[in-house]
């Protein structure tokens, strides 16, 4: 177990490593007696549980030396180490890294012997107190040499530091609330994903097309199913011209296509093309009808039937949602319904 625990923020590892060398060569503490997590060989050994190792060494060490910086106070882990030292009545030697100063340190540490890490006199007092506590005889000439080297490195580190951004509380609260919402959305997505995986596994076991259709209908929310089918019909219908759309509308709503005779003459060119493509055929009674046996027409009529089934099975929640969003009546035989949903 290490005797000295250096508590420092990872962002301050440069000055922490310089300080580690100061303790070893300046104060005379063996390297194996110091825990410095930012320095290879003096930190957490490979394969060790990081948090458990830190906890064990924090409890077993004789003293804690927190390198208190602006970065330090922004680290939950560092603040926890301070709390752990306080809770176990650990001997603490706080060192303050500018631009932090004595006034910046929490009241709980103001009555504890602390020092600015760049103050030559205070740093020497710290070294003597630490050496006395660990029963080490401080070599004054060696200390003076190493202190001078350390102060040069420390001042260079401090001059290159950028102050952490200051966040206004209202902005922090807003971001915190947004984070909570995102976490809730993330949990919901995970739950939905788990449900989709289960549905996928069930679908893999189904081979009959009618069973697949039944499964989809039973596992898709009513509103979502309606809008999905309506988009499908809209897209399928969009490949046809105005006249063919009218014939499909009449066929799907059981209207008499003889009413379209005059319209067919007005759209004579489209009518002849539709006949050539076998989309419209003679009924045998002198008027045209849609060819419901044409593959694409048959698929389209089946999709329209699916929309009809969803409407017929609709419950109060779906009906209320529909009329809050759409203008046309919820009636697939109504022309306005077709105009709104299928772009008739």
From TrEMBL:
SUPFAM superfamilies according to UniProt: Toll/Interleukin receptor TIR domain
Organism of origin: Oceanidesulfovibrio marinus
Gene3D superfamilies, sorted: Toll/interleukin-1 receptor homology (TIR) domain
Protein's name according to its UniProt entry: TIR domain-containing protein
Entry annotated with the keyword Coiled coil: yes
TIR domain sequence ranges: 1-134
GO BP terms: signal transduction
Coiled-coil boundaries: 172-206, 290-317
UniProt keyword Ligase, yes or no: no
Alphabetized InterPro entries for the sequence: TIR_dom, Toll_tir_struct_dom_sf
Keywords carried by this UniProt record: Coiled coil
């Amino acid at each position: 177990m290490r005797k000295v625990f250096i508590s420092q923020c990872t962002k301050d590892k440069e000055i922490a490593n310089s300080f580690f060398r100061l303790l070893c060569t300046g104060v005379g503490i063996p390297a194996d007696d110091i825990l410095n997590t930012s320095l290879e060989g003096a930190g957490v050994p490979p394969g060790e549980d990081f948090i458990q190792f830190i906890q064990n060494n924090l409890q077993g060490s004789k003293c804690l030396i927190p390198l208190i910086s602006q970065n330090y106070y922004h680290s939950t882990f560092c603040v926890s180490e301070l709390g752990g030292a306080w809770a176990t009545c650990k001997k603490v030697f706080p060192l303050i890294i500018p631009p932090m100063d004595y006034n910046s340190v929490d009241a709980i540490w103001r009555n504890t012997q602390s020092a600015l890490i760049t103050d030559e006199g205070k740093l020497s007092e710290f070294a003597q107190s630490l050496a006395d506590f660990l029963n080490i005889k401080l070599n004054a000439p060696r200390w003076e040499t190493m202190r001078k080297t350390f102060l040069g490195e420390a001042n260079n580190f401090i001059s290159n530091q950028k102050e952490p951004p200051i966040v206004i509380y209202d902005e922090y609260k807003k971001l915190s609330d947004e984070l909570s919402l995102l976490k809730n959305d993330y949990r919901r997505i995970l739950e939905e994903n788990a449900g989709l995986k289960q549905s996928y596994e069930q679908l893999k076991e189904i081979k009959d097309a009618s069973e697949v259709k039944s499964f989809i209908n039973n596992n898709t929310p009513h509103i979502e199913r309606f809008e999905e089918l309506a988009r499908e019909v809209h897209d399928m219908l969009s490949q046809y011209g105005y006249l063919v759309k009218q014939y499909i509308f009449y066929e799907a709503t059981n209207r008499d296509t003889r009413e379209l005779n005059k319209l067919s003459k007005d759209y004579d060119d489209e009518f002849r093309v539709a006949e050539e493509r076998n989309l419209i055929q003679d009924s045998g009674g002198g008027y045209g009808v849609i060819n419901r046996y044409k593959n694409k027409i048959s698929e389209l009529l089946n999709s329209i039937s699916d929309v009809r089934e969803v409407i017929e099975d609709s419950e109060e929640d779906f009906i209320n949602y529909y009329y809050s969003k759409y203008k046309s009546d919820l009636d697939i035989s109504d022309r306005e319904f077709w105009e709104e949903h299928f772009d008739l």
